[in-house]
Amino acid sequence: MTLYKILIVDDEEMIRRLISKYAVFEGHTVEEACDGMEAVSKCRNGDYDIVICDIMMPELDGFSACREIRRFSDIPIIMLSARGEEYDKINGFGLGIDDYVVKPFSPKELMMRIDAIMKRVNARKDTVEEAKDVFTLGGLKADLSARIVYIDGSRADMSPKEYDLFFYMLKNKNIALSREKLITEVWGYDYYGDDRTLDTHIKLLRKSLGPYAKYIVTLRGVGYRFDTEA
Fold it and tell me: How much is the pLDDT for 128?
């Protein structure tokens, strides 16, 4: 089992202790922060593998802390919240978080989510084969090796997961991709999240693509397809 250095961010000491207890039991190294300001500072100066961050906190809320962290780091982030509204999830995923967990939660499941996320992150780092081509469709240009997308000459601002989803669809353009296939290939075989996460990311991706969102076609009862003839 691979062990990780985890930063737990929550203004509730009981929550921090609960997560820390399970993480340490599994052999992980843990540090804590009680608000967003402290979390950002620790991420600037520390070397963590993953961050677990609450949303509602004093000084600096979780969304703002995530936004600041994303300015200088692509460290995986799991967001915790007592609310499960779609708006909060879309906001979080739009900022580049990797998972969203609603309180109350199972600490054991949280540890499994951490392991699943880190496996995907490490798999990307270990991948030697990487597409070298540039995809162009009208004013849409995607450099797959550099992970850069241009919309009518302007660079698109996408979250890491949006890039993963978009590039997978590009590599399999004009092919019907089932929901299960997309979740398996983009999130991993051992993904424990809600499959509505896929729909949320499709919404975000379409927004990022602007006028070229039309090429992502919904296949009712099946999934999606990037259709160059749409």
Answer: 38
pLDDT value, residue 121: 79
DSSP state letters, 59-99: SS-HHHHHHHHTTT----EEEEES---HHHHHHHHHHT-SE
Cα gap 139→136, rounded to integer Å:
7
Token pair belonging to 1: 């089992």
Report yes or no on whether pTM surpasses 0.85.
no
Quick one: average pLDDT of 92-108? 91
Environment class of residue 90 by beta-carbon count within 10 Å: exposed (0-12), middle (13-18) or buried (19+)?
middle
Query: Count of alpha carbons within 13 Å of 117, Cβ hemisphere only?
Result: 25
pLDDT in tens, 172-227: 999 999 998 999 888 885 666 666 889 999 999 999 999 999 999 999 999 999 99
Mean pLDDT of 4-16: 95
Q: Which amino acid is at 164?
A: D
Q: Given a cut of 70, is residue 65 above it in pLDDT?
A: yes
Please, what are the domains in the chain? 5-126 (3.40.50.2300), 134-226 (1.10.10.10)
Q: How far apart are CA 98 and CA 112, in angstroms?
A: 14
* Coil, strand or helix at 143: strand
- Partnered with residue 51 across adjacent β-strands are 7, 77
Distance between CA 173 and CA 227 in Å, rounded? 6
Provide the residue type at 141 as one letter: K
Beta-bridge partners for 136? 141
As a whole number of angstroms, the distance between CA 15 and CA 23 comes to 12
